[in-house]
Amino acid sequence: MESGGILACLLCWSCVCAVTAIRRADLFPYGALSGDHILAEGDDETSKVLLLPRPLNFYDSRYSQLYVATNGIISAQDLPMEKQYVDDGFPTDFPVVAPFLADIDTSGGRGQIYYRVTETPSVLNRVAQEVHRGFPDAKFTPTHVVVATWENVAAYEERTRTAGPSNKVNTFQAVIGYDETDSYVLFLYPEGGLNFFGTRPKESYNVEIELPARVGFSRGEITYLIFHRTEGPHYSVTSDEQSVKNLYQVGNTGIPGVWLFHTGNSYSFGNIVPASISGLLVTPPVRGHGLSLDTTTAEYGEFEEYSDNTFDPDNQEEEDDYPLTGGDPEFQTAPAGGDHSESLQPASPDAPSSPSEDTRHQVAYGSEDVPLTSEPRYNSEPAVRQYAPPNSPERGQQTQEQQPQVPLEVVDVYPPHRNEPPLSPGGHVVSVDEDDVDFDTGVIQYTTENKETCARYVFQQQCSQNAFCSDYATGFCCYCRPGFYGNGRQCLPEGAPQRVSGKVSGTVTVGSTPVKLNNIDLHAYIVVGDGRAYTAISEVPEPVGWALMPLAPIGELFGWLFALELPNSQAGFKITGAEFTRRAEVIFYPGNQRLSIIQTGRGLDDHNHLTVDTVVNGDVPFLPPGAEVTMDPFKEIYQYYPSVATSTSVREYSVVSAERGAESFSFQLKQNITYRDCRHDNRAAVPETLQITMERVFVMYVKEERILRYAITNKISPVGVQPTEPELVNPCYSGSHDCDTTAQCLPLEGQDFQCQCATGYRGDGRNCYDVDECAESLSSCGAHAQCVNLPGSHRCQCQGGYEFGFDGRTCVDVDECSSSPCHISARCINALGSFRCQCQPGFYGDGFYCSQQEVRPRSQCEHHRDSLQSGAEQRPSLGAFVPQCDSDGRYRPLQCHGSTGHCWCVDVRGQERAATRTPPGTPPRDCDRPDETERPKTHCEHHRDGVQTSSPEGHPAGAYVPQCDDNGQYAATQCHGSTGHCWCVDGNGQERAGTRTPPGTTHTDCSKPDEPERPKTHCEHHRDGVQTTDREGYPVVGAYVPQCDDNGQYRSLQCHGSTGHCWCVDGNGQERAGTRTPPGTTHTDCSKPDEPERPKTHCEHHRDGVQTSSPEGHPVGAYVPQCDDNGQYAATQCHGSTGHCWCVDGNGQERAGTRTPPGTTHTDCSKPDEPERPKTHCEHHRDGVQTSSPEGHPVGAYVPQCDDNGQYAATQCHGSTGHCWCVDGNGQERAGTRTPPGTTHTDCSKPDEPERPKTHCEHHRDGVQTTDREGYPVVGAYVPQCDDNGQYRSLQCHGSTGHCWCVDGNGQERAGTRTPPGTPPKDCDRPGCFNISTLPDEPERPKTHCEHHREHVHSSSPEEHPVGAYVPQCDAGGQYTPLQCHGSTGHCWCVDARGQERAGTRTPPGAPPTDCDKPDEPERPKTHCEHRRERVHSSSPEGHPVGAYVPQCDDNGQYAALQCHGSTGHCWCVDGKGQERAGTRTPPGASPKDCDKPDEPVRPRTYCEQHRDSVETTSPEGYPLLGVFVPQCDSNGEYASQQCHGSTGHCWCVDNRGQERTGTRTPPDTVPVDCDKPVPVAPTQHPESVCERWRASLIEHYGGKPEPQQYVPQCESDGQFSPVQCYGETTYCWCVDQDGREVPGTRSHDVVQPACLPSAAPPTVRPLPRPDVTPPPNADITLLYAQGQKIGALPLNGTRLDPTRSKTLLTLHGSIVVGIAYDCKENQVYWTDLSARTINRASIVAGAEPEILINTNLVSPEGLAVDEKRRLMFWVDSNPDMIESANLDGSGRRTLFGTDLVNPRAIIVVSSTGTLYWTDWNREAPKIESASVDGQNRRVVVSDGIGLPNALTYDSSSGQVCWADAGTKRLECVSPDGSGRRVVHPSLNYPFSMVYYRNHFYYTDWRRDGVIAVNKDSSQITDEYLPDQRSHLYGIAIATTHCLSGSH
What we know:
Number of strands: 98
Strand content: 25-35%
Number of helices: 18
Shape: globular
């Protein structure tokens, strides 16, 4: 075809263009010369992987490789064997581009297949031109093209056939062009290129069939929920052989044989979009038809341009074959008489329709026009996919001559519909009476001309944003994406709970009284995971409220929409979506009253909540006030037809009232639910019938609240499914699983299941949290749109000044001027996202108000500005932002905050323009420029703003605030404003290794790319380990932080930031010797290389050994040698502590005679010694003594005296003892010359008597004396005494210890003669008693343990025993004397018979020793004080960290009453638990409080004290971290009126709750506000309300500092419950009534809290219902559970929970019931009331009233136990941390335990053994303890491996104690002695309380808000009970008709 012809055709786009098909020469270049690869010959070949230079977007996925296959396809993944796909239709299991999918065979040289990827400019340009021709609005410039060509390829043929091979071959080409975001595909079929149009299946078994080739695209299977797959979207170009033949005759680009498709986009893509230009071959003109050829393009019809192309009903008679309704004639079940007026068919064609995927027009043409397609038939049987040509009978009759073919379509043909009503599997026929059912389905019909396509959907927003679109012959359908469910038009996340809101209106006549309902609120909440639906209608007038209780069908609609699905069924929402109409008629019997219900689903609101409006009109029977309505479980069968579901049923219900007793009634319900279905894809037909099972129906009317409630549990299943034993039903189907309410339960084999968080949530399935798509940049919002997070999803909303365009997605500017917002004398100027008003000349004002007055009225800006002025001086409040106005009173476009320095642009209304704010010090924005396209906040901006908004000051002191660039990305260089460190970050804000620089140094150039990343160096690990130890991002004060260079190596010079010392280090960071300099001195030059390193000298070793012995640098008082620069000893050495100085030689040895005492002139050590003679023996001896100690000589040592010649002086004296003696020339003592002190010395000049040899005693004595170099015995050594003859004196005494004893001639001690010091020694010479010569010793007994011990000490040293060693003392019998003393230290203590020290008996020297004859006190375990003190000591090598607080304990281990902090000097008084007593702290220097004075009557800690103490204990060292604000409390524990921040210096005033009073904050260095000035206060102070008491109790329960996700009641200023309650800082919120009870159906996970209306206060004269007992129905065993303001009764049937008989036992308004216990002997229930702070009881008999037992000195009573045998009760009080007991009537109260408890919770008593057990969930050291009921024998049972042991019970069958732990999530048991521990269940949710009965544990769960049963043997959860009103369940107990064994 000539190019000029093509151009002319294109210029005349609405004309009929008849062109010829392309030729082979028009194909894209291919073959070896074009660089193509050639596919191997064969029948089923696949190319090697074709790697793409850049990823390709196909549908909404990205692929980096392609494969080309023999069989006419290109795939993004390696292909399976051809038999798995070649004979099947679309969709395929894998991604496919199919220009001609058929069984092709190139074996034997029959054709070639070429392929390549190219960037050739000519190819890129041609693809770009083709795309721009087919998609004129596309902005597409391809970067790469894939060309695949099948040349002269043949079809596969069996070789065994008699006929030869066919000569038919085909040539075609596929071209894929793509850029970074989009992909387009061209299919080219040249003239004569297609000669066969299909292939025979290989396994056709001689049946002559041929499958036409498939042409189109398939996304392939999509995986979701890990294990599940679903088929993805697909698109077919052909449907039958004729359509294949037409491939080269028609096209969609204006050229026959050229087909173009948009196949992918990186942003959002639903399905393939074809090009939209017709192209037909030249054909002979058609006779008899006036239709122009340009109307035959199926994708677009020209009629859509005109608004008057509507159907004329008058022409319907000509449409015998194509009635307008398109209704299935076999579905029109007219009566036999032929009257069609009442046949069951869709509504009239006049019915209005909204735009949908069905159609936007109702158009039909006469029989001469283009043939139409009849409406597909519907049937419950599966659809059969057939490929029929457009002129086949299935597509309707045509005129004799064929029209030019429309582009090819897929047609789904269904088997004929059966006439008879469908039969359910059980054989039950459900008939529908046409008279009673309105089938106004609003079905819209189709023709091929008016059909819509997915391409148009893009502009019409027909499908959900969580759906994709598929085109079919008659239109398109929407399908929810994996992870979502619905009808495609509306899709909700799988598994997430759903909320419904709406209005109820109408008129209901009760009896004869009509009552109008005026748009009252309806709310519903559905837990999809287990099929529970809660509905509440508020403000229902009283007579109607009672009468409408039986009308549960109002809430049943929501149960049907979101029922729990059993296999082979689907809930209603998957069929109807959110747009439907339900019409129901209720006929009451026996009165025949009729009521109609119309419920209209109006779609999903902005929060993804279903909106349903309800209209009720008619009559209902009267029900007496106070009546109770009960409805039994029932089943109902729903019949499904196209666009309608119907059901008919009869219900029975019973009414119990005081006036009438019990009565039974019934009503008949007829209903139909009409909706719009998509009838273009008939493969997934809706089942004919399904069965809804309503297992529980609960109805009630709350008179006080005027609220009508329905609660229904629903399951949907195929008809006839019989209930199975609960044990055999998978928990997913029974609803008894423990998955989170925002999780999906996925059934596995048997009883196994998996919890998987719903789409848009994260977690483990049992705990799921919403994904914030907005914060994580996962949203699909475009320009000028803001992302709003929703539960499981998000929505986009246009920013101010923008609105959604016609496509529903793009935000376009709102022309505000079109609504004339300005003053009549002003003109309006529109701008992007804004506008401004400007007064006309001669007028003054802001444009909204213009005046000709000279003094114009104040503008909005001026009003705003002036309203912020305060006081007579017209000065703004400190820190407040004051707007700036121009001379005309308009807001200046640029506004700046005078205090913070931030600036931003505003619109004419003063509203900040997004993304224009600049921080102080940066240039402000140009506010005259229009807004840039707004983008959502980036991660950096969220990070930055999260820090900046976390504190009143803008951001916490010292916190790191990230810096973002103009695009919101992290600035490449980040700096810490407080520490001055700077570093580079990557795109995620993560620090780039090696880029951190300290303050004052040049920053790293962050623009340089990272070097190939190296691992962190040792220095960086060291540095970062220190830097990350503090939450604020900088090191703890005082810590040494190493400095690293750019390469991560240690900087050669290191300095300590706190101490100022600097030193040089080597490559390992080790200090280089001699380089340390103190603060203020010049640093060592570390760049100088070390001298060739010499080994350390003796002096340096000596010095460094001393210096490194302590963290402080050297030990206190130690002598440190001084070395010169060469490491040699300095000539003069001085002792820093004693002041002595002396000279030393080269070895550091003192030079004799040079020592000088402190204060005297030093010896001149530079003078040489006199010619030195060698030292004599005496001098060596003397000097050896002097140098043996750092101080010069040891105290008490003997120093020999030498004469001038160095010889021993003849007379030697001991300077300490005073003994003197004579010595010989060797310094040896001459025998017999020693004289004691005070006696005349021996004349040593006299010669010795002739010397006799030394005796044994003398050798012994002298041996002791010579064992020491100083010449005298070491202190404490025993020196034997010898007489003049050298024999042992008979009495020997130890000079140090004072012991004396008798010895024999060998010096051996005679047994029984030793006496302790201070007692008279034995008379060793007394005749007849110890006369050795006359009395032989007793026969010797073996030595005792004491004697062996003593002798072992003696024999361990030559000196008889080592210096300072302890020598045990033995009595005459050889046994240890009871009192032992250490001779050297003076300590004494008592020992037992084995010599072991008895604890607590040691006394220090000088103190009276303990009386060892007294028996030991029973040994006590270490106290809490001692444990705490030891923990501090053990936390540091020095004993305790410097600056740490060490508690002081008294002799009994209890906390000393006065505690002081050794570092800070603060002192305070403590109670017995070591807790500070309020108001006793004194600062350093002040007199401490007298802690012995009794406290005032003890009050509980106030909120201020809890706040303060929680801060002070946040550091292990016992003091607050730097920068943390610590509140100041007054002496009464209330917040001091003025608070100041110790770090920042800001001060402000607070109210009594500690809340800052507005306008009182002052910066540092300014005068604080006088907080004592009166401020407006509430007129009266109300008494503490239930809400406030509950709040205070829970705050205490949470340790004074609740976690962000924990619930704390929110109270109004008057103390009442706030209407909206939330879990902490989460968005999990709900509404409550005036008593704090949850309003069912109001729970929300949204960012927007539920709209809750405050309850009207009850009239003061109206009494509350009397709290009396309503006992449960007769039951042997009943579980009693506490639920806030009531006690419920849940009977057991065997061990199964019986919810049908559950009752409210006792309603207690204003109470918070926590602990609960049961007395089986008196049939009474006992409970603790957290709100009233009381303990109560009541008999379980009808009408019994509660009795208060204890109402004083209770703060937070929780766990409660009753000992029915001893008639005692026990409870824990978790605020003062006590366990108490009393008689069952409240008398005899006593405290059992008041110490070593932190958070006691549960308590049980085992009556049979008289044992108490309790839990203490102290988060630091949780434990379970036991004791006897009288408080004796307290001990720890379990302390390891537990977290929050909430629940506790006793297994009487095994005798084990069992607990349920909310921290570890385990249920465990252990024997009382700690043995036999085992795990019963490993994964509970949040248990609170538990009981045991018959091999089952029953516990209350705070996550499920119900009672859960666990089988002990199987460890499986077997049952669950969820009360109809959801709120936390607390205690649980068992009530029995007789006492059980082992009751507790």
